[in-house]
Amino acid sequence: MAEKSGHGSILRSEALKKYILETSVYPRQHEQLKELTQASFDKYKIVSLMGVPQDEGQFLSMFLKIMNAKKTMEIGVFTGYSLLITALALPEDGKVIAIDPDKDAYEVGLPFIKKAGVEHKIQFVQSHAFPVLEKLLNEKEELGTFDFIFIDADKENYLKYHEIVLKLVKVGGVIGYDNTLWFGTVALSENDPMPPGLKALRRAVREINTFLANDPRIEMSQLSIGDGLTLCHRLY
Ligand SMILES: C[S@@+](CC[C@H](N)C(=O)[O-])C[C@H]1O[C@@H](n2cnc3c(N)ncnc32)[C@H](O)[C@@H]1O
């Protein structure tokens, strides 16, 4: 079932993707994650590939638990695959602020979030992220309090997000940026053939990658999982 959703990944071999999913992911995947994936595919077909790949989701889940994350934020929810991953990984009194202007997509995943019994951990905000972030920045008690912030939205704004979320995440907390390998196009040169949709944002993704690699305020690691996940650990 879940195979139908495809798998947004830079892995070149379909057989390898299938192997990873069938061996390590599907046997342990929460039933509601499977159902959300299917519902997302039924409604959005190929566009459902926007959801984080299931092996990346599995990694995020374990990572959140290892770091004992309790207060988190997600920018870019879509139908809520990574959101459900997060809500399941948080403790009972954990919270995730989830921001996306697209409430229709969120509502596709919502029945599965409810069925999984984790809706109480989610504060969904139907909005573009910047107004919400500006508001949080003005509330002094919010500064430096988030354990984890996951950014999976408008790539052209990742640099702007970085300056803001670095103030909201706590020292020792982590920011995750998704799609930092941009389907492999970051390693191509400007004139190489590539789909126009990817070409349009390739430069922005390369810029954030270079910026993060040189930012002394963080320790970082660019993981070649999914479409590239860069984890940034706030140092001060
Ligand atoms: C790649 S999808 C997110 C996938 C999601 N993390 C998942 O696992 O299913 C990107 C989402 O970002 C949202 N988005 C785009 N611009 C945004 C903005 N400025 N603020 C918040 N969300 C935004 C889109 O509406 C879209 O749902």
UniProtKB/TrEMBL annotation:
Keywords: Lignin biosynthesis, Metal-binding, Methyltransferase, S-adenosyl-L-methionine, Transferase. Coiled coil: none annotated. Its EC number is 2.1.1.104. InterPro entries: Cation-dep_OMT, SAM-dependent_MTases_sf, SAM_O-MeTrfase. This is caffeoyl-CoA O-methyltransferase. Belongs to the class I-like SAM-binding methyltransferase superfamily. Cation-dependent O-methyltransferase family. It is an enzyme of class 2 (transferase). GO terms for molecular function: caffeoyl-CoA O-methyltransferase activity; metal ion binding. GO terms for biological process: lignin biosynthetic process; methylation. Pfam families: Methyltransf_3 (PF01596). The keyword Metal-binding applies. Pathway: Aromatic compound metabolism; phenylpropanoid biosynthesis. The keyword DNA damage does not apply. It comes from the Eukaryota.
